[in-house]
Amino acid sequence: MKTHDKILIESLKLFAIKGYSDVFLNDIAENVGIKAPSIYKHFKNKKDIFESCIEKFEERMNEKRLQLLLPINNEKLDPYLLKGREEIIDIALKLLEFHLTDDVASNFRKMLLIERSRSSEINSIYEKTFITNPLFYQENVFKMLINENKFKKGDSKLMALKFYSPIYFILQKYDFERGSLKNAKDELTKIIIDFCNEYEVSNKKND
Question: Coiled coil located at which positions (predicted)?
Fold first, then answer.
């Protein structure tokens, strides 16, 4: 692994344990196995490392979405029209596993959780990444499914809340229990099945 990437990975590990504020360049350098001044060959300062962590997380997220053949943004959501219930469940389980077990994704989220009460800037990043954007994305998906008569007529924003809130809860519940991944997946599967039973148009169900 290149020194630049190692600095990034070790920084994320430390940020996830102590929070961004309580980690210093000397701590990072010690974990990487270099002297603190050497960090400046790769990053301007600690904030530059933090911003690179955001970029790294977004890069990993986009790679995962592409792997699952999912739209990256809120445009061109048509692929969801071709996906049945079983495929949606499979995608949701793979995304859950990614967020709970991928070191970059997991440590990035933990870092923001620790730091959000200390920094309004970081809190804004957390809310945008894990609350606002996912809800807006899901709202647009359900709006499209309603328009295509795959889901019953209703409030797409409320659907997004009812769909995403349990997923958000499961992430918090199992964040530090990787050994319970099966339990997390079982719970999520039941939640999605129940949600589909409530909102899918009856002749489109895949029971």
Answer: none
